Amino acid sequence: MLPLVLLVLWSSLVSAFVSVPTPPSKDSFYNVPGDIANYKNGDIIKMRNTPVPVRSLIFEMNVKNAWQVLVRSEDSFGVPNAFVATILEPYNADPSKLWSYQAWQDANCIDCAPSYSLLYKASMDTITTQSEIPFIQYGLSKGWFVVVPDYQGPKSTFTAGRQSGKAVLNGVRAALNSGNFTGIDENAQVGLYGYSGGSLATGWAAQLQPAFAPELKSNIIGAAVGGWVTNITSTALACDGTMASGIIANAVNGIMSEYSMFDKVFERELNPLKKRKFKKAKDNCLLNSIVEYVFQKFFSGLVPYFSRRQDFFHVPEIAEIIKNNTAALVAEDGVPEIPMFVFHGNADEIVPMVQPTRGYENYCKWGAPSIEWTVSETTGHVIESFIGVGAAFSWLEKRFDGQPPVEGCQRTQRTSNLEYPGADVAYRQVLNTYVRGIFGAEIGEDTIDIDESTWLSKIISYGFSKFLGLIGPIPIKREETVSIQELAGNRTVDELYKGFSDVKNLMQAKDIDPIRVLEGEEPTI
Fold this sequence. Notes:
The protein has 525 residues and is of the alpha/beta class. It folds into 3 domains: 2-231 and 326-433, Alpha/Beta hydrolase fold, catalytic domain (Rossmann fold); 233-324, 434 Repressor (Amino-terminal Domain), CATH 1.10.260; 451-518, no CATH class. It is built from 20 helices and 12 strands. It has helices at residues 2-16, 114-117, 127-130, 133-141, 161-176, 179-182, 197-212, 232-239, 246-258, 263-269, 275-279, 286-292, 316-324, 354-365, 381-387, 389-400, 423-438, 455-471, 484-509, 514-518, and strands at residues 44-49, 55-56, 59-60, 65-74, 80-89, 94-102, 144-149, 189-195, 220-226, 340-345, 370-376, 408-414. Helix 14 (354-365) links the parallel strand 10 (340-345) and strand 11 (370-376). The protein is globular. The two termini are 34 Å apart.
């Protein structure tokens, strides 16, 4: 108990001497310069060290260097703009490896941008983005440079696919051209990753790359996407009237910011009684809107936010906007030429399976060279965001190590993606790095590069996978909200406890030290 108290006191003392970062809306570094048209896509307009240290949730993250760069890009229509990207260097940096990590911002407010969320003592309103930081540390522990782009751009246009995809590619261009201060090799291998809102940006980057950034094909070794958003209408209808209704408010405000020429159309469609509350979402981060709009109905019910209900999507101007922001719709919009990895929960209640299914089938039909899709039979959107990443990280590491991806298209179904080969290794790495980082370890140098499974990690992964298979996804509709015991039943819980008790008893009987097993020592049975 005493070490924990001392840790908290130490953290409080250190934080007292760290200034609070300025939010992007009040930070001139984020301003798009008047001569933006004089720069090329991917140019670094200006750079700085992060104004305060970067964070690992509530603690500082000890990396060798952290920079913010203002990058020239363009919006959905080709109009020049600029966004901020954060470049992180671990202590054991390999200049030949770069990871572009697309965090889920899922908000129309610039003060929720990842570049701000990553900063120590940034507002806890950005906690959903901050929850991905332990995953970002995974790449750093492997020695990869990491670039985290504010891909929604200066207007924070959440769900604008082309804006987001272009920004991802321009963030990669900027990082590859930053060698004079980061040391990154201009010929470095590049991996892309994103889940949920981050998958929208990553997926669009993969689709746009052949035409928009053809020179990057030789750099990008693959893109991993989970909770893959390809159709924003499908997600909006799935979320309507659920715990996730707030996503709709953020998404529609986001797309309105990109298509401001249709302001009058959106205004006309909004219920006058709901207009003021709807626009409050422009100042919200994701968590704020989830709370603000929980169970509210935008396209259904007696008094929906949009008077036409689902016919809102058939208004000609709205339908055209949706069409232009639907990925894998027609081959002429682009087909990925880089390897892709898709992980998705079969019971995803926010991004229904129809979305990745259509994307996978269309890209494969149109000649995509390599798409590996691993489906979890048991998880929904929220659980898969944590349970599925191990599979994605394992796949990415194999690509960085030069192992070839699958040829053509391959779809595999598992109880959960915890069972994907090597997923347990990734989680050991995430946990090891995060815990060591809490105590000030130099990320990369002091964090072990874990690359093998252990007896215990396999058992834990298998056990949790089977448990997820018994309880299923978290319900998000009001009428479906029940306890885990009601989902799984007392017998299921008893069986789970018995299974882990059997393992515990076996280890005690054989005098096996669980800590040593977790660290990689193979036990003798």
